[in-house]
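We were asked to recover a plausible sequence for a given structure. The inputs and outputs are reproduced exactly as logged, with field labels preserved.

PROBLEM: sequence recovery
POSITIONS: 432
GIVEN STRUCTURE:
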């Protein structure tokens, strides 16, 4: 019977519960073998301890316990020579089943998953197979049968950041495509820290949060971390970041004007909170410069006396701009210039109407004009800022010489200009 013993018995492993057993049929004598039986100890959890391989010389068997050491041998069964069957078996071949995740791996047992390692259990004592750093257990640490998967599989996607006001953000994201049940929580992080020192927020398992208290005008980088705590002693996380974003800066306040009497006009304001890189300052009529890096701006030329200016001041921080501060200011009215281009029109035998062009630099609001007759010494005050006046009570066919002065709303300065150049006008002949 020894001639029927199979040769070259080998046992191989597949995963954490499967073995492949192969042998070479006896030669000569293989025709006399009725069947081959594979036997092992200890028995499987279902109570089996052997398998009828018929005439096969290669079998794949499953159901073995991860991390368990088994002894295998193959029997050759012959039942054609005697009234009862005869058998002969190989020498035993021992092998330890590779350990799956969360399975004891003491005594040189190999961890089946190439991305796992044999390390001490969280509670100390025996070593077990656990996923290496940057990998997580697809079934969670408490459930056997998982595999080690890269942490990047837990990354959230479609992170959307929407700013609200000057210190608030709304952040939302899409869950990982798979293994979401292995995420313990999501955390939102930002750099730099807020004024209270915080750098993160626990979003639990929510996929949208609203956060406040950020510094206006500050540049932040946000990220959403998927935190996994079921595979190793320490938690692991994987981050998905947003591009750097600048918070909307605050609107300036506390506008004030200084030295509106000139010759240098200074405007200033305050920034209630936050950060600025510059300010955009626009005036109507236009004054230059239009930008400044401080909370004040000086105008040394082009400023008109007695001029009303509308102004907008906008805080700039990088590419972000605040809502504008809108204000008004007025420079001090000063002595006006006289009118120009005096002319006579529509003379009669007793009246002469004078017209003129308002001064290009009124240096304030024109209130009225004073017309003087050089010929008679009489003075006339107009009742408005209109640029004409009719002088009455004159003699026919008489030449009268006139001059005109501008009067504005100056208070601290003389409000009447010098007189304009003179002009002579002749009344018509009396009508019969």
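RECOVERED SEQUENCE:
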């Amino acid at each position: 019977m020894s001639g029927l013993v199979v040769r070259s018995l080998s046992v191989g492993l597949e995963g954490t519960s499967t073995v492949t057993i192969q042998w070479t049929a006896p030669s000569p004598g293989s025709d006399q073998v009725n069947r081959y039986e594979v036997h092992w100890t200890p028995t499987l959890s279902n109570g089996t301890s052997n398998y009828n391989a018929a005439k096969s010389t290669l079998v794949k068997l499953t159901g073995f316990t991860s991390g368990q050491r088994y002894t295998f041998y193959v029997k050759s069964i012959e039942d054609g020579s005697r009234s009862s069957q005869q058998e002969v078996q190989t020498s035993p071949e021992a092998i330890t089943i590779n350990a799956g995740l969360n399975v004891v791996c003491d005594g040189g047992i190999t961890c089946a998953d190439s991305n796992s390692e044999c390390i001490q259990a969280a509670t100390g004592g025996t070593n077990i197979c656990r996923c290496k750093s940057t990998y997580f257990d697809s079934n969670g640490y408490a459930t056997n049968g998982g595999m080690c998967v890269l942490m990047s599989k837990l990354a959230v996607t479609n992170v959307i950041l929407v700013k609200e006001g000057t210190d608030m953000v709304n952040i939302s994201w899409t869950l990982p495509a798979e293994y979401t049940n292995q995420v313990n929580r999501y955390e939102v992080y930002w750099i730099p820290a807020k004024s209270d020192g915080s750098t993160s927020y626990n979003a639990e398992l929510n996929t949208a949060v609203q956060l406040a208290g950020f510094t206006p005008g500050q540049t932040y980088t946000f990220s959403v971390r998927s935190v996994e705590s079921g595979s190793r002693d320490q938690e692991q996380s994987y981050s998905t970041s947003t591009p750097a974003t600048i918070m909307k800066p605050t609107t300036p306040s506390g506008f004030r004007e200084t030295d509106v009497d000139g010759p240098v006009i200074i405007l200033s304001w305050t920034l209630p909170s936050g950060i600025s890189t510059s300010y955009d300052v626009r005036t109507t009529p236009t004054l230059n410069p239009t930008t400044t890096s401080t909370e004040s701006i000086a105008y040394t030329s082009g400023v008109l006396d007695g001029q009303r200016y509308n102004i907008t001041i906008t805080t700039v921080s990088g590419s972000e701009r605040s809502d504008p501060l809108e204000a008004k200011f007025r420079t001090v009215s000063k002595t006006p210039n006289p009118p120009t281009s005096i002319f006579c029109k529509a003379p009669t035998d007793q009246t002469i109407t004078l017209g003129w062009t308002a001064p290009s630099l009124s240096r304030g609001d024109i209130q009225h004009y004073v017309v003087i007759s050089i010929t008679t010494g009489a003075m006339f005050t107009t009742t408005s800022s209109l640029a004409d006046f009719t002088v009455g009570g004159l003699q026919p066919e008489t030449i009268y010489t006139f001059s005109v002065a501008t009067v504005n709303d100056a208070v601290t300065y003389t409000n009447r200009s010098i007189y304009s150049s003179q002009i002579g006008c002749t009344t018509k002949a009396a009508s019969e």
